[in-house]
Amino acid sequence: MAKQQDTRKLFEDLSGAGKSIGVLTSGGDAQGMNAAVRAVVRMGIYVGAKVYFIHEGGTVIGSARCKEFRSHEGRLKAAHQLVLRGITNLCVIGGDGSLTGANLFREEWSGLLEELVRQGLIDEEAAQNNSELHIVGMVGSIDNDFCGTDMTIGTDSALHRIIEVVDAIMTTAQSHQRTFVLEVMGRHCGYLALVSALACGADWVLIPEMPPEDGWEEHMCQKLSESRSRGSSRSDRCASRMGVEAVLALLEASDSTPACVVSLCGNQAVRLPLMECVQMVSAYVSLIFCRSFENNLNTYKLLSYHKADSELPNSSFNVAVLNVGAPAAGMNAAVRSAVRVGIKEGHKMFAVNDGFEGFYKGQIKEITWGDVAGWTGQGGSILGTKRTLPAKHLDKIAEQIRIHNINALLVIGGFEAILGVIELSAARDKYNDFCVPMVMVPATVSNNILGSDISIGADTALNAITYTCDRIKQSASGTKRRVFIIETMGGYCGYLASVGGLAAGADTVYIYEEPFDIRDLQSNVEHLTEKMKTGIQRGLVLRNENSNENFTTDFIYQLYSEEGKGVFDCRKNVLGHMQQGGAPSPFDRNFGTKIAAKAIQWISRKLKESYKNGKVFANTEDTACLLGMRRRTMAFQPVVQLKDETDFAHRIPKEQWWLKLRPLMKILAKYKTSYDVSDSGQLEPVTRVRPKKAD
């Protein structure tokens, strides 16, 4: 039998030997730029390229706006400096102005070389050897004012600062029944204001993309008065992945390859034509054509406007919402969104306390618009959540559905939540009461839900891990040669350890999905020992809590301590439930808000489709679904079809997208490894969205 040909494209097959890469940051500084620079430098060195810092060009290498570069003479000097060093590959991290200037520089490159030859500053051979200039951009801007990407480097950190301020003044707002007006940055782009408004549940937002109508002042004051009467008075992880993709794009570039910008779409790093993106944001109003911005704007409109109760539609449907499993930051934002969207759809919303246990005990009550005010920024689960599964209590749950005339279910939670929906849908043949639309929204710090690349709560947990790792490393700033062993949560799922390790710059991460033995441990110790000899003073090792039943955190700590004697000492830290608590991150607040709104809209459609002869009857596979993020889109997937994709014994999906990131982490830690980049390399068009008329 002929061997199957390996069609994978591997990173190590792309050689950087003989190439030079220059990396610069330009324009205003943005958090995350340093991580991008680190990734470019280490990946460039890994493939054998020579990498140059272009200083002042904050970040560790300086970021500045250069007036001289705007002139032809300035660009001629810059070309001369690059040719002298043989730099023909530029990675530019900055805003649209910086990227536009870089593209102009590339277009003028041939003419600049000819001019340098005429002036006698370089010879013909140097011009020939440096005849092609390749440019890849990464957008570094807290404003998120660039089309083609969901989020620019620095935006997430800026959102964190805003939300921290809002959370800090919330108690004063509640205590004194005050209204606070906050001004945020963003220049001509309203992204920071809009997403912050979503994340904190603001009553009003003013942004350039949605100018207020005449008489808005009176409308706003009326709305604030109504809110009071209802009782509601009151680190960027993507940068490393983008840096790696930038180096990959430079290595693959040819004379015909247009300048590109590396962007983030969903959980994918993609390449887009640089100038096409720039042209779309040449006027700030065009930002409304970006899908990410439009989605945020539509969700804000959906949640912010509340008519009088008499003006709302009446669907005559009752929808129940419950949390199942362990608490996850962002659950409350999801419940708030579901309740308010459900009410606007005309449904009567019911809250179930304490998951399926509260369901069969009858802990069910109607929940109103005002009841969920202020829930967005609250951690944990206000409704209460437990791991109880419904299978042993089907009779009582069916009885409660009849008592309260429940017509649809929204289940927000972790692995127990999807198991619960599977059990209820499987019991439809015996119980007609379960023949109602039901949808599950993933919410768990472990991010171990089949059918979704990301879960509500995982981002907050990753922030806790990264923050703690940074603080731990800083604690040893005056200490020579120390290695930290840190244990993370996640059950058998290594997502938190792996992605947290990538963000924190870990040297090694031990997880269940990648088995390891004593020889691997010994090799890792030796690798760290060699790194310590090169001047690096600190090491970071992460271990997922269930990575190996024998190689425990204590065992690994003792092994590293013994084998590292005379070279480094060790400390260990078990992060525990601190990863689960605390206020939700801006991402988890917004993700929970948007995914729950989409789930309720799906429920409304299914209720209409399944309402016949005066009652709801839904028993097809597509009426019991999980709503999850798959690559770049939200998808409803029948839970029955997801069973084959699951390792139920270890409560993890059989295939997990983030495992492809692990070689990247190893490369950045200076290990030699294989990295499959088959998904990379395609230059994609920028998606344009036509604006819709507001209701």
Write the layout of secondary structure elements.
Blueprint: E1 20-26, H1 33-46, E2 50-53, E3 63-64, H2 72-85, E4 89-94, H3 96-118, H4 124-129, E5 134-139, H5 155-176, H6 191-200, H7 216-229, H8 238-252, E6 260-265, E7 268-273, H9 274-280, H10 291-304, E8 318-324, H11 331-344, E9 348-352, H12 355-361, E10 364-366, E11 385-386, H13 394-403, E12 408-413, H14 415-426, E13 438-442, H15 458-475, E14 482-488, H16 495-504, E15 508-510, H17 518-533, E16 538-544, H18 553-563, E17 569-574, H19 586-610, E18 611-612, E19 615-616, E20 624-630, E21 633-638, H20 639-642, E22 646-647, E23 652-653, H21 662-668
Key features?
21 helices, 23 strands, 8-stranded mixed sheet, metal ion binding, 7-stranded mixed sheet, transferase, 695 residues, globular, alpha/beta
Summarize the structure.
With 695 residues, the chain is an alpha/beta fold. Helix 5 packs across helix 6. The longest helix has 25 residues, at 586-610.
Structure description:
The structure is a single chain. 39% of the residues lie in helices and 16% in strands. The strands form 5 sheets. Strands 8, 9, 10, 11, 12, 13, 20 and 21 form an 8-stranded mixed sheet that branches. Strands 1, 2, 3, 4, 5, 6 and 7 form a 7-stranded mixed sheet that branches. A 4-stranded parallel sheet has the order 15-16-14-17, sandwiched between helices. The longest helix is centred in the last third of the chain and has 25 residues, at 586-610. The chain is an alpha/beta fold and 695 residues long. Helix 2 crosses helix 3 and helix 12 (355-361) crosses helix 13 (394-403). The protein contains 21 helices and 23 strands.
